[in-house]
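Researcher: Next entry in the queue.
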Amino acid sequence: MLLLTAPWLIGLLVIVFSIGVALCFVGLMVSLMTALGNKNWFWAAGMLAVFPLAAVYCLRRWQIAAWPGKMLFSGMGLLIPPIAYFLLMIK
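Model: Structure for this entry, 91 residues:
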């Protein structure tokens, strides 16, 4: 249990979490601009209201939204270890 509270591990997880949040934000913004550029007004409005709709949009329109989708999904993947660590520590 002492290893799980090591300062270097917590610092590393904070860095990974920050990179994941940044990738998710940039992926959301680029997918929003992609939806607006392709005149998908309802998708764009939905993405502004509810964040996970950006992932659904990228999956459904992978032909035109592959680049923002890659950023969005890699950011979501980077968020898993820090969130799992936090949930493990509050248990």
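Model: The first helix runs from residue 7 to 37.
Researcher: Noted, moving on.
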